[in-house]
Each structure stands twice: as C-alpha cells, then as structure tokens.
C-alpha cells in the first residue's frame, strides 16, 4: 500500500506546512502514486481527471525544484482552455504561498497581446497557458524558453482534440531536452502514446482510481421517443428537482441555442455556453453562472471544459454522451466535495447502444425510469434571486472589491447580505446584487463616485 502522508515525501518543509494550512490532510490517490517519482525528477504519464488532485501532484513537484532566486522561466504548463489555465494558476499560487516573490504568469488566447508582453518583460518563473498563444509569443520573440527544465501537459487528450498538436510540437522544440516532462490526461488514446514516445524519456505510468465510484451522485436514466418529448422531459425534470445550479450538456452548438431558447420561453433562467461566443459574452455567461444570477447553463462538452464550478446540484445529459469516459466526466461535476448531486440522462432508442456501453463501463445495469408526473407543470420555474451589474471600471482604475461593496452598502445603501460575488477585470467589474435591491444598487453606483470617478453601470440580462 502506498502511504498517504505528505510528510513521507521529500518535500520542502515550508510546502508541507502550507498544505496543512490549506486543509490537505493526506495525499489523493493520484498524488500518492505520482509524487514520489515526480520528486525524483522522472518523466511521468498520469491518467486522472479534474477533481483527482492532479494539479497539486504536478504543482508540488515543480514548486519543490523551482529556484525562485533565478528569475527565469523554469516551468511551462500547457492547458487546453483558458478556464483550465486560470484554475491551474490559482491552485499553483495557493500551493506557492510560502515561496516569496514567485511569479506565475498565465498566457492564453482571446485576450490582447499587449499586457502579456508587458508582463513577460517583467519576467516570470512559471508560465501557464494555452498552446496557441504560447506559440504566438515564441513566434514574435516575446517569449524564450531556454531555461525551462519542467514541462507539463495538462489534459493532453483535450489539447489534441482541440487541434493543438502542431502548436505543441513547435513549443516542445524550443524547450531544452534536459528537462522533466509530465503528462496528464483523462484518457490514453494512441496519439498520446505517440507524443509520449516523442517527447518523454522512459516515463513511468500511473492511473488514478476512477472517480466513477462516487456514491454521492444519484444517476437517473430516461428513455424518450423524439426531440419533442426530449425537451418536455427536461422541463419536467427541472421542475421536479429545482436545482439551484445545473449544467445541461448538449451535443452541438445549435442544440445549445435551441434548448436555451426553449427553456427561457418556459420561464427558466438559462444561459448558453458554446465555442462560437465572443470572449466577452463567454466571460459574462461564466460570471453570471458563478455568481448565481443564472441557474442553468446549457453547454457543449468542449465549452464546459475546465470550468471551475464546484457546487453543481445537478447535471443533465440532454443526449447521453458519445462515449462512457465523457459521460463519467460530465456526471462527476456534480456531487463534489461530499455534497449530494443528481445526474439525469436522456436517450432515445437510437442511442440505446450507448447505454449498453455505459453499462459495461460502469459494470452495472441501467434501467430507464418513469418521467416525473405532469402535475409538476403547475410549478413556476424557480429563478435566481441575484442579478449581475457591470461597471466600466476595474483594476486599472485601482478599484478594489471593498470600494464597490462600500459604495453599495454605505450611506443609506443596500444591506451587505444583498451583495454577492464581486469580480474585477482590467477595466471592468461585475457585482451580483439581489433583485430586490436592484433599483437602489443601480442608483447608488451611478450616483456615487468610485475612487473619485463616475462609473457607468448596467444590468446584464442576456
Ligand atoms: P484538481 O484535480 O487538481 O482540479 O483538484 C481538485 C480539488 O482538490 C482542488 O480544489 C484542490 O484544491 C483539492 N485538493 C488537491 N489535493 C488535495 C488533497 N491532498 N487534499 C484535499 N484537497 C485537495
């Protein structure tokens, strides 16, 4: 049996101390299996999903060997999406709290180049980013990777699926051969093996225990006749379970839009997330979902990759997923951190074979259940109590969350309990307020000055 105590590892004492302050009592399965080898400097391929603790597995490895006095880029972490890159950077910063002056920089697409170039000129120890943008920086000469000694590929299978193979090749070519390479992937298709052969040296393989034994997720399956019945089934299930936050997975962008529109017509508060959205709309959608002013997110698998949402009450598979891995990954987004979650999957006769595959994969039998009785149609869809306001000022204007909170609650303002999440961007900010206080909040923010300047404020609807 592998020991699970972090203290059994050859880790810097400061890192270990910080782990207990983060509440990490013992290693997760993937950490226990991979850290001893990572700390020895070896290459490693690890099969493990989001939620397995994989970020800390590679994060502790790279932080333990990083020399903070040497102000050069020493580590590159490649991720398929900006959301995952942000999530990884966040976790690394948490793990690195005891290392002073460490600089972790994210480089992702969909945002302007200028500020990234500026940050690169100031230097960094660790780069976390998406392959396309990192390749662009290399091409422009705004980034050099000569001093990198650790390369990490996170969700490598997704990077390939998203067509990043060429960018990966171009990046790896710029990194010295004398390095440690760690590859994390939920699945292990042939292309990953091919990459591993090309860029790794005698990698050790570890496979974390699958998360599909998560007993706190109740899975339900429903058989539907046609698309008309499919959307009605979804409506019934939403009314029956009344989840505060849920994701509905669809197979195509078109379907995402259709389902979102129909649910909105039925009075639900649903937002769409798919690859065709402008970056700004995508950000707003995520903000509204995260701050609870939208309760249902309708998404494709690719768009929902790497989303950092850990309190989903329910996952709905509008169509059962194409393969069982994807199904388990979707369903694993609910019931996290010990909370109870439900997962409802819809399928038609034509899709029955996928249920068969899933039965094999999960090693259980699946029986379709009866849909909720139509009496639930008398219920009115629950809408969120919060709404989102956008301000046209942010970090650049030296705005801090406290300034916004102060303006809202001070001087005959709204109660603090009516203010939700506040998120700051470069030149904008989002704040959630309860709908009951909307008018007053709009008035306070547009009349009062923030940091001595007038700000424009508007409610984001859709
Ligand atoms: P990840 O799979 O890297 O996305 O991590 C999933 C979550 O588990 C993150 O929120 C981590 O902060 C948390 N986590 C990672 N390692 C541990 C640990 N050993 N004990 C408790 N929580 C952990």
Give the averaged pLDDT, no decimals.
90
Strand order of the largest sheet: 3-4-2-5-6-1-7
CATH topology (level 3) name of the largest domain: Rossmann fold
Low-confidence stretches: 211-215
* CATH superfamily descriptor of the largest domain: P-loop containing nucleotide triphosphate hydrolases
Q: In the CATH hierarchy, what is the class of the largest domain?
A: Alpha Beta
> Gap between N and C termini, in Å?
52 Å
Query: What percent strand?
Result: 15-25%
Computed structural class: alpha/beta
Tell me how many strands there are.
17
- Total domain units: 3
Q: Which cofactors or ions or other ligands sit in this model?
A: adenosine monophosphate
Largest sheet geometry: 7 strands, parallel
CATH architecture of the largest domain: 3-Layer(aba) Sandwich
Helical content, roughly?
A: 25-40%
What overall form do the CA principal axes indicate? globular
**Count of individual helical segments:** 17
Radius of gyration: 23 Å
Folded structure, characterized:
The chain is of the alpha/beta class. It folds into three domains: 6-207, Rossmann fold (3-Layer(aba) Sandwich), CATH 3.40.50.300; 214-378, P-loop containing nucleotide triphosphate hydrolases (Rossmann fold), CATH 3.40.50.300; 386-460, RRM (RNA recognition motif) domain (Alpha-Beta Plaits, 2-Layer Sandwich), CATH 3.30.70. It has helices at residues 13-21, 29-39, 54-65, 82-95, 113-122, 131-140, 156-161, 165-173, 190-199, 227-241, 253-265, 279-290, 301-304, 324-331, 352-362, 401-409, 438-447; strands spanning 44-47, 75-78, 104-107, 126-129, 150-153, 180-185, 204-207, 217-223, 246-250, 270-273, 296-300, 314-317, 341-347, 386-391, 419-424, 429-434, 457-460. The termini are far apart. The model is unreliable at 211-215 (pLDDT under 50). Bound molecules: adenosine monophosphate. The site of adenosine monophosphate has 12 residues, from helix 3. Residues 24, 27-28, 31, 50-56, 91 line the site of adenosine monophosphate (AMP).
């Amino acid at each position: 049996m592998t020991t699970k105590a972090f203290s059994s590892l050859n880790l810097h004492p400061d890192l270990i101390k910080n782990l207990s302050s983060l509440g990490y009592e013992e290693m997760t399965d993937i950490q226990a299996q991979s850290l001893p080898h990572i700390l020895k400097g070896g290459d490693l391929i690890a099969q493990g999903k989001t939620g397995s603790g994989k970020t800390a597995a590679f994060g502790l490895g790279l932080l333990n060997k990083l020399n903070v006095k040497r102000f050069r880029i020493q580590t590159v972490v490649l991720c398929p999406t900006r959301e995952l890159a942000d999530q990884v950077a966040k976790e690394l910063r948490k793990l690195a709290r005891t290392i002073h002056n460490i600089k972790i920089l994210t480089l992702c697409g969909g945002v302007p180049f200028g500020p990234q170039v500026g940050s690169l000129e100031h230097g960094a120890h660790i780069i976390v980013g998406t392959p396309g943008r990192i390749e662009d920086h290399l091409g422009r000469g705004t980034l050099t990777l000569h001093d990198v000694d650790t390369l990490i590929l996170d969700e490598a299978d997704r990077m390939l699926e998203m067509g990043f193979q060429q960018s990966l090749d171009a990046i790896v070519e710029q990194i010295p051969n004398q390095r440690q390479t760690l590859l994390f992937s939920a699945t292990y298709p042939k292309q990953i093996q091919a990459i591993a052969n090309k860029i790794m040296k005698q990698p050790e393989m570890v496979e974390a225990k699958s998360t599909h034994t998560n007993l706190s997720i109740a899975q339900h399956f429903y058989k539907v006749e046609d698309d008309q019945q499919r959307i009605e089934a979804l409506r019934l299930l939403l009314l029956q379970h009344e989840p505060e936050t849920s994701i509905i997975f669809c197979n195509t962008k078109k379907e995402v839009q259709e389902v979102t529109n129909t649910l909105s017509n039925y009075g639900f508060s649903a937002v769409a997330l798919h690859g065709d959205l402008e970056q700004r709309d995508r950000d707003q959608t995520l903000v509204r979902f995260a701050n609870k002013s939208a309760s249902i997110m309708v998404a494709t698998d690719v768009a929902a990759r790497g989303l950092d949402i850990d309190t989903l009450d329910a996952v709905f598979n509008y169509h059962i997923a194409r393969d069982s891995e994807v199904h388990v990954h979707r369903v694993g987004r609910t019931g996290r951190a010990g909370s109870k979650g439900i997962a409802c999957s819809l399928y038609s006769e034509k899709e029955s074979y996928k249920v068969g595959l899933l039965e094999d994969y999960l090693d259980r039998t699946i029986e379709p259940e009866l849909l909720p009785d139509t009496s639930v149609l008398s219920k009115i869809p629950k809408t969120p109590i919060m709404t989102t306001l956008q301000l046209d000022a942010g970090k650049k204007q030296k705005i801090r969350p406290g300034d916004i909170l102060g303006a809202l609650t001070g001087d005959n303002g709204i109660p603090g309990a009516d203010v939700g999440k506040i998120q700051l961007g470069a030149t904008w900010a989002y704040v959630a307020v309860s709908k009951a206080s909307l008018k007053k909040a709009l008035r306070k923010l547009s009349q009062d000055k923030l940091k001595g300047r007038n700000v424009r404020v508007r409610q984001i609807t859709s």
